[in-house]
Amino acid sequence: MSQYDKHDPRSLYPAPPFPKQEQSLPGAAWKMDPRPDHGEQSYVGTERLKGYRGIVTGADSGIGRAAAIGLSREGADLVLSYLPDEQEDAEAVRDLLEGEGRRAVLFPGDISDEQYCKDLVQKAVDELGGLDTLVMVAGRMDSNDDILTLETAAIDSTFKTNIYSLFWLTKAAVPHLEPGSTIVTTGSTQASSPSPDKIDYAVSKGAIKLFTQAVAQQLAPKGIRVNSVAPGPVWTPLQPGSDDAETVSSFGEDSPMGRPGQPAELAAAYVHLVSPESSYQTGSTIAVAGGMPVF
Ligand code: NAD
Ligand code: MG
Q: How far away, in angstroms, is 236 Cα from ligand 2 center?
């Protein structure tokens, strides 16, 4: 099966109820039941990104892993960013992509640290000889249904990981990006339909949308395009890492599709926004949300 085969989207992937499961943040893809599909067996590339050099954050698991597989199979060489605790997931991605003949350089670190963001961009320039695309997928999500117990440290961590890192990585990357280069951010349906137990996360995702729109206008005169992907519910370690077992078990049931998306179903959106085929798109957001309304 490839992403081009016709299929019924309702029954293509598992639907809730899922086995009850929880993890601590950051979760691991290899611990999930069922295992997420990142397109390992299905994504077929057509040389849309031949010669591209890119960075993917959060590339060890979930949507970031699927984006990395898609970009790599389209011809891109990549530096993969993730947290040191996620080494096992990251090595699985590297082994897959390098086994297929592309470069996939591991560079673990914490994007809530400005120096790491600078080092990550420098690593890509040094290892790949330049930079054509910055794909920012990493994000922190936690749940808390009482603002009175939402600690400043948690708010700081969410905002630094999800918002500050976009500023730091973009600032570091822009001097290396030639006209035709691209930046992709990762929003969420939470930016327009916030959940009451995810205030800090939803606010951060709203900020990402505005960041994308504002920076797109600033960088258009340099020939650099900036776009975003807004996922709905997607089966990744973010859920068992952030929500209780009950919530994970019914994850995706509210989607008109009756199931959560799988990371593999988002890869094409990232590839499209990175590649020259989207040349007149900038400041835009592609929702991949199974019919969940996105405004
Ligand atoms: P995931 O857990 O697989 O990916 C998130 C990644 O973020 C982790 O693998 C980790 O490497 C990275 N990360 C987190 N904190 C970091 C830090 N301080 N430094 C460096 N890396 C860090 O889960 P995912 O669902 O694939 O998440 C990817 C993106 O998609 C996130 O931005 C998330 O907000 C967004 N998103 C996910 C969903 C969903 O339902 N899964 C919905 C909307 C948006
Ligand atoms: Mg991970």
A: 8
